[in-house]
Amino acid sequence: MMLRRGFILFLPRVAGLLVVACCSMSIVYMLACTPKGDNQQLALPRVHSPTVKEGYEAILLEREEQHRNYIISLKKQIAQLKAELQGRTEQLKNMQNQYPDPLDIQLDHSKPEKAQANLLAFLRSQVDKAEVHSGVKLSTEYAAVPFESFTLQKVYQLETGLTRHPEEKPVRKDKRDELIEVIELALGSLNKPDGVSKAKPRVYTASDFVEGIYRTEKNKGTLYELTFKGDAKHQFKKIVLFRPFGPVMKVKNENVNMADTLINVIVPLAKRASKFQQFMQNFREMGIQQDGRIHLTVVYFGKEQMNEVKSILENTSKSANFKNFTFIQLNEEFSRGKGLDVGARFWKGNNVVLFFCDVDIYFTAEFLNSCRLNTQPGKKVFYPVLFSQYNPSIIYGHHDSIPSLEQQLIIKKETGFWRDFGFGMTCQYRSDFINIGGFDLDIKGWGGEDVHLYRKYLHSNLMVIRTPVRGLFHLWHEKQCLDELTPEQYKMCMQSKAMNEASHGQLGMLVFKQEIETHLHRQKLSSKKT
């Protein structure tokens, strides 16, 4: 009983001590964790200071004042930052208004109409930068991005990749799908009702597709130009599409009537009557009989073999009833640039497409259409990459006989190569040639004049269409590099001569011919012994 009463009396004391201990610990924790001012030291109340309660109240009031001042300081800093940010924003808006950047798109998802308008503005700016409507000035001949060409079956490409095939069926699925999608979109555009004509519209199909060209610029997108058969002979439909790293956009849908578009084929010549005879056979079949909208200008240097050349022209004129030719004779040393320049300036008729050609070139009627379709006065000039034939004696040396010329003209890596270093065969309107200044007549002999003219076009605002074409061939002939050439011309001539003979593998077989024959001989001896 006594123990129970003592425990009851002792319990309030223990509770009081626990309360005092908890309060002391709370105060110490608050003083330790609360940040101090830079030069302020807080201390516990001393013995001679006011009561403990009053001391703690003074400390709490002091800390409250410090926090209040700190909050006021933060608010001032935030207000200053907001003001500075607003000023910078105004500066940026002024700069954007002064120098608009089409790439700076603000896609505000809360305003879908504005976001769509901004996106369309960006895509249109990509079209403008991609030389769809006009060309841009380029610094060198290497800056031009070439086009690739394609049909329903094959792609004719400069970038041959690991296969090294100048033409092939698209092996990669993404490339196949891409070209199929583009053709289908073009057909969809052609077959879309115009809402005006009541006549039953023609339905275009894939069989109406003639050819297309395309090129990809990494910072812009892919440009496609597709040509379809038109409603009548010599009429075509051209669809221009652009993929600006997103959906394909229709840029143009225009009718192209080439029925009255004449091509003046200009050929500079000196001697080489037998080659001219071969050229005229091609010209008669493709130019006169199949195309029919063509003129021939021959600029002849000197008098040797001149009568033979004139006789070939006259015979063709009589047999084919062809009167659209001009023969110009110059009594001076051969200069390709001078001959082409004289032939172009001699024309007195309306503006005409000029095709600068050589006597060792074979072209098809399809190429002549490509020449027309890829030139436009004041806008476009055409620099086709032709397919250069290897030496038939090397290519078909293991055959019983060399095939006919028509059978040799196939595009395969064993038979030739894309002559992407050559700029001599070109189509342009006469007005563009005259306005650009023509050829540099100081260049004599072989080589150099074509690159000079090509650079002029690149430095202008004209669009240069550079693409391999399946209907233009350079026929093999033995090349002679004359001593009269300058060192640079002679070097170019020898490089051309080396590339003309055969492929790398075929030349290797010739170089190691003796070793191969020795190996075969040993194999025969070994087989006899066994």
Automatic annotation (TrEMBL):
GO terms for cellular component: Golgi cisterna membrane. It catalyses: 3-O-(beta-D-GlcA-(1->3)-beta-D-Gal-(1->3)-beta-D-Gal-(1->4)-beta-D-Xyl)-L-seryl-[protein] + UDP-N-acetyl-alpha-D-galactosamine = 3-O-(beta-D-GalNAc-(1->4)-beta-D-GlcA-(1->3)-beta-D-Gal-(1->3)-beta-D-Gal-(1->4)-beta-D-Xyl)-L-seryl-[protein] + UDP + H(+). Pfam families: CHGN (PF05679). One of its GO terms (molecular function) is glucuronylgalactosylproteoglycan 4-beta-N-acetylgalactosaminyltransferase activity. Residues 64-98 form a coiled coil. GO terms for biological process: chondroitin sulfate proteoglycan biosynthetic process. The keyword Zinc does not apply. It is found in: Golgi apparatus, Golgi stack membrane. The keyword DNA damage does not apply. It comes from the Eukaryota. Its EC number is 2.4.1.-. Its main location: Golgi. It is an enzyme of class 2 (transferase). Gene3D superfamilies: Spore Coat Polysaccharide Biosynthesis Protein SpsA, Chain A. InterPro entries: Chond_GalNAc, CS_glycosyltransferase, Nucleotide-diphossugar_trans. Keywords: Coiled coil, Glycoprotein, Golgi apparatus, Membrane, Metal-binding, Signal-anchor, Transferase, Transmembrane, Transmembrane helix. The chain crosses the membrane at residues 7-32. It is a single-pass type II membrane protein. Belongs to the chondroitin N-acetylgalactosaminyltransferase family. This is Hexosyltransferase. It comes from Vidua macroura (Pin-tailed whydah).
